[in-house]
């Protein structure tokens, strides 16, 4: 298992880069995304751009409207936020139960590496890097569950929450929350891991 994405196609590269740019707030909420402009910006044909826009719309990062094109999604409605938080906590809580049962030296290394990248990102106070490192840390937990189907449930939920990431003003607070999750995971303490997870997901 690797924390680094392995791309097999140009489409996958475009999806990854465009997702990072959206989550990193390169594009503003509600901003219209045009195939032609993205094709020039990313140096690829319009076909992989079109496919990437479709996939990211399915993930909830974009909104496709007939005859109006594609726009970056807006922040979750306040009434919907508690439901999404609950769903994410349940998915990752389940992943923690499974991951702890299966945790080996390689899994522990992946957790430590992801935590260190989050520390470096939070120290830099660079928002796009912080968002990516935060998502990567939680993705490791989901992957360590050993349930591939869980990723398809988790990804649109995490994407909708991370779309406009600004909860922490002191970024090292975010790192310390992830540090508590990591400590509990490495100690194979389910209850502590879930407490730390719930404190982090708000």
Written account of the structure:
- This protein is mainly alpha-helical.
- The protein folds into 2 domains: 10-72, Arc Repressor Mutant, subunit A (Orthogonal Bundle), CATH 1.10.10; 81-200, Up-down Bundle (Four Helix Bundle (Hemerythrin (Met), subunit A)), CATH 1.20.120.
- It has 9 helices and 3 strands, in the order H-E-H-H-E-E-H-H-H-H-H-H.
- It has helices at residues 10-23, 35-42, 46-59, 81-102, 105-124, 127-144, 148-162, 171-186, 190-200; strands at residues 32-33, 62-65, 69-72.
- Strands 1-3-2 form a 3-stranded antiparallel sheet.
- Helix 4 (81-102) runs antiparallel to helix 9.
Second CATH tier, the architecture of the largest domain? Up-down Bundle
Kindly report the CATH topology of the largest domain. Answer: Four Helix Bundle (Hemerythrin (Met), subunit A)
End-to-end distance: 29 Å
- Determine the structural class based on helices, strands and strand pairing: mainly alpha
Strand order of the largest sheet: 1-3-2
Oligomeric state: single chain
Sequence of secondary-structure elements: HEHHEEHHHHHH
The low-pLDDT segments are none
Q: What name goes with the CATH superfamily of the largest domain?
A: GntR ligand-binding domain-like
From the alpha-carbon coordinates, what is the Rg to the nearest angstrom?
A: 17 Å
Instruction: State mean pLDDT (0 to 100 scale).
Output: 90
